[in-house]
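This is your field. Pick holes in the following sequence-structure pair:
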Amino acid sequence: MAASCRKGLFSVKWNKIISILVICIILLSPATAEAASGITIDSNNSGEGIVRVAHSGTDKKIKVMVEKDSTKYYYDLKKEEDFFPLQLGEGDYSVTVLENIEGIKYKVVARKSFKAEINEMNSVYLKSTQPIVWNYDMESIKLANSLAQGEKDNLKVVQAIYDYIVNNISYDYKKADKLSSDYAPEIDTILRDGKGICYDYSVLFAAMLRSRGIPAKMVKGYRDDIEKYHAWNEVYLDGRWKVIDATFGVVEIKAGTSCQMFQDEDKYSKLREY
């Protein structure tokens, strides 16, 4: 089972790069206004658990840092605008836009602080936000609608989508070895290719469920019997979050053993959730 996720989301090397990156940001950070020219940090929808960031007029690599208390999440801004989750609950947030100087050196070009009074915490897990990006025109989302077939029982919808993924998306053992550090899954590409890694499975599953109004998280961390960094899902059913690991399901099917959708949460150590 240890080979099933191999490098998973990121390698240990990339985690070290992130640590260096933070140091470089601190060293190069000037005093900044809330937003520099061409940059928008829009917190108007923070009550729904999201923040919009837009950046125009540059071809440089841009990162977004979302911070609450001592916890920081980093994202790549690959489009002129994108939405990012405020999954750390109600309270005071700081969103910082970082522009690449060279190598892993970044400078702060904009920052905005605001208080998020989130109306319903699970609402953030229904949105299209990084890294779970989706819209109703995507083939994956149309497929989710087809699989649901008007079903009103959320458990049956989750089971139908899960069954499709574990039976039709194979694990790509070569992909993890050649991923770039800024890789982000595109759900229609995963569906078209019919293969992926744990990051792909968890993003695809979460997007399909969110499109059906079922709160779903993509989680990363470790599973007891997987050596490397791993990704899985938590799905909100019957008033509680339940662990579902599509990667583990795929491996069970390939091994010819029974495939159980729900997993024992005690086997997982969560580090990040989206």
About this structure: DSSP finds six helices and 13 strands in the chain. The two ends are 25 Å apart (CA to CA). Residues 131-273 form a domain with the C8orf32 fold fold (CATH 3.10.620.30). Residues 1-21 have pLDDT under 50 and may be disordered.
